[in-house]
Amino acid sequence: MNDKLHLDKAHLLEQLKQMLRIRLFEEKCAELYTQEKIRGFLHLYIGEEAIAVGVMAALSPQDEIVATYREHGHALARGLSMKSVLAEMYGRTNGCSKGRGGSMHLFDKKQHFYGGNAIVGGGLPLAAGLALANKKLKKTAITVCFFGEGAVAEGEFHESMNLAVLWQLPVLFICENNRYAMGTALALSESEINIAKKAQSYGMTAVQVDGMNVVNVEAVTTKAVEHIRTHQQPYFLECKSYRFRGHSSFDGQLYRDKEEVEQWKKHGPVMQLKRWLIQNHQLNEKDLNVIESQIKQEIVEAINFAEQGLWEPVADLCKDVYSPSIQKINGKADQGGLA
Amino acid sequence: MTKSIDITMPSLGADMTEGMLVEWLIKEGDKVQHGDVIAVLETQKGAIDMEVYHDGIITQLLLQPVNTVPVGTVLATIEVIAAAEDTEEQSLNKSKQQSSTTEKTVTEQITTEKIIDEPALLLADPLTEKPLTTTQQSHTQKVNISTNVDTVLASPVVRKIAKVQKLDLSVIKGSGPNGAVILKDIAQITQKAVLTEGGLLTNMRSAISAAMTKSKQEIPHFYLSLDVSINKAQQWLQQANHDKTPKEHILLIALLLKAVALTLIKYPRLNGFYRDDCFEQASEINIANVISLRTGGVVVPALRNVEQLSVPEIMHALRDMTRRSRAIESGERLRSSELMNATITITNMGERGADRVFGIIYPPQVAIIGFGKVNKVPQVCGDKIDIGEQLTVCLSADHRVVDGMLAAKFLNSLAKKLQKPEQL
Amino acid sequence: MNTKEIERLVIEAIQAVAPEIEQNDIDFDEDIREECDLDSMDFINYLAALQKSTGIKITEVDYPRFSTFHNALAFLKINIQTKQN
Amino acid sequence: MSEHRNNSQKMTYREALRAGIEQCLNDDERTFLMGEDVGRYGGCYGVSKGLFEHYGAERIIDTPLCESGFVGVGIGAALGGMRPIVEVMTVNFSLLAMDQIVNSAATLRHMSGGQLNVPVVIRMACGAGLQLAAQHSHSWENLYAHIPGLKVLSPATHNDARYMLLQAIKDLDPVIIFEHVMLLNNQGEVFSEPEADMEKALVRKQGRDITLLTYGGSLPKVLMAAAELEALNINVEVVDLRCLRPLDTSTILASVKKTHRVIIIDEGWKTGSLAGELSAIIMEQAFWYLDAPVQRICTQEVPIPYPSHLEQAALPQVEKIISCAQRLFEGKQ
Fold first, then answer.
1. CA-CA distance, B251 to B240, in Å (whole number)?
2. CA–CA min distance C65, chain B (Å)
3. ipTM value of the model?
4. Model-level pTM?
């Protein structure tokens, strides 16, 4: 385990609880999808929990998050309630986006969670923009932008890297390199597969970290955040990780073999921390069962909350397309186009 | 304490409605754990592993491979240790009924939400942002429509036909929005005009056939005829036309029309309309005349209030109407008033026609009178035989409205009137 | 007015009631009503048109004189000449 | 036309598309298929499944996620003499490639004084209905049909899905083909040859009271409405546009002149929609044949919401078509 971080038992248990919370939640979502409770696309975070939990632990409440469509872990780790996240996937009005976004579009302004994004690489320029605003408004908040290694092929990645360095924007880029962009292995899509090296080429401090080790991730992120707050410069973390399930629920996974998946599962993020805590007598079976049953109870309550959620009335279909002030000026609900 | 749970065909994709069970990886009695792969499914995305979401023992495999079944079909059952799972299972089942209830409210919500007309859905009252009730909206629509009250509202195709046929639209009650005159409002008046490339071709054929077919199918016709001596009428005409110019020349048909008009005053049952299963007495006597056109087909313009016209006035109107009808190709036109609300029709093919003419009634009228051609015949006067002129008057009538006896009385009364031409 | 002009007036009068008829369609010595398919109403309108264009008064007793094209021509020629001198 | 009707085959719309791609690959060795996950993964919607194993990596090319990049490459290859078929996974991602499509593909021939040709075909899945929420449910046929230099096709039937690609790949100019996601699984009939040239609209059902104009994914809904209207003895005529640029105005106007009433069903948003363009054309060229204002049934002007009941409420539906047709027929509209 990384020595720099003060090995505080309570903190490690909390990290384990956060990761387990994501793991069990995602597994329940898989089940609920097969029962047609959740529809549309579903991209699960199982195997990458250490990154979200590690990074979020190093942030402060006013920092801003931009995520992707594989965002349940980030939302839970950031503090969005499991109830509001699951209700959103049920499409109910008590969901965090009033049921309108679904799994790929979770938003929560209070938590500064600026949502998932279904367009690969779509979030990078947004994060740079949020950072520009913070810089101009002289806020101490920093912006954290999560994306997968697939986004590295998008033009927006390169444009955002350049602007972030050019304009010295306080943004932390977190590349969750899980080795597969949907059905294409990294080596088949990138000439240079060391992604941190790409960021360095833009003059940005860029570091690689074992994305399966939550303690390492937290330590490196803490250092990065300090650097950004003091020097008002962008920073790049490439977290090497692996997703244990398909790209989405409907994926024959023809692009990788089962053996490789099993290998990675052997030292998954939850497994690693659990094994370390038990070997160092910080955790026993009983404690673990208590934690797991608390999480299962939280999941049951989230399901009830989502089930009781109401459908948005059809009459409100076009509400919020424009902010109220504009609708009032032109005296009638808009039929499209600014007044 | 254990509980049995169904393992169903999972939905794995947004548009996956069915799945093919290719292979079971477990058998009945096997102990399984949460996340174990228990079967292989084939989908359009290739083979996908199927997981079990509970720890427990497989009790029954209900479906054997290879089989394609809809999502949700029960494939197997599993016995789970109830304790730990209990709270979650119960809540899940409870929530299942609940979700089914909420599902119901959803469908209710959609059906009770009557399919509001699209604009209404969006029109919101700016202050309260509640959608305007339909009355409020129709009010707003009416306000700005009624301002230009002078122009007649009519659809473009109606305006085009009216311009070409010089129809006066202000006379016609429109059934379209805000009283606009639309095609169906002028369909009865004109032959259904079919606008084709490069101008208007009055579609005579289809209009005539449509009216005639409707009449023959719906109206129970019966026919009567009476031979009528017209010696007196011809003598009257000779005197009336003596050294008169062609403009003032009177033909027999004018006399016949006036006689019919006056007789209808005594027998109004033949002069009206049969609509919505009942007879409606006409308030005027407008007699339509079948005018054959040089290029084939007919137009049936009507003379209004014939009983109030003198015989010369009738002749003048008839001559002008015939001239215009037969010169439509070179730009002549009929007036819309001439093409409207005829109450009875006359058909007369004149000296080159037939002896007897049994016409088909023009719906919604209830009678049509056909005048045969004038023939010189031997007539019995007292006990002498004389040469005289005679024509046959034929009446087709709608048996739903008129009976034989009434029709016969009408014909005899008409014949009597023709014996005193000077009183017409 | 010479014969040619009178002929044209007669043709025009016929076309007033039977627009599609041309001069060479008509056999000048056959009954005009058969040739041009005129019924009694058309015949009167034809005579009215002729009276208007030629200015010659035509009364009912003259109608038989218009039975054929040639007869009509002859009648009009005589009356126009008497009117001129 | 009738003789090839009888030897028809039954297949899904997806299989018809695949058969079309295979025939293009077999007919012309200059042709190759390029796009995200078209090879090993078998296509995001499974259209190109099996082609990689048969034709190999040279002709079935997986691309990284760089739409502007690989679409630009496809256009460049066409410029260089190839006949590429570029698959943009969905129209939703095509915005990233809009610059290459508009400023290169559509413009090069004219801008080069007629010297250069861009014989590329760009295929995109499109449309809503799978609860994929706002960023994955767009219908932007109208954006592409606005661009001079592009031809835009919308195969609604299986026969068109099978043969339009063949006609498009032979065209010397860039052709965009939209494949609606809700059609992919449907079973349908494919005959032995195309029913018409790709730029021709087709009357899918004769009628005389009202013309229903539509294209692509909306056709099944319109035909369903037409059948129900028949029972209400309202005899509608269904015209399938098939080609959205250039528009086959003669077929459209012939129908309008016959029925005097028009409803346009278009899954795009009403403002700036294809339905708007069609309505203007009808007003300009068939104004004097209209007995009622042209009606448009489009998607509500809202980013498509995730919950099914809201998504369905936003999209054009059979019931809306029927009630609009009834109001039109009774002269209340």
1. 10
2. 14
3. 0.63
4. 0.64
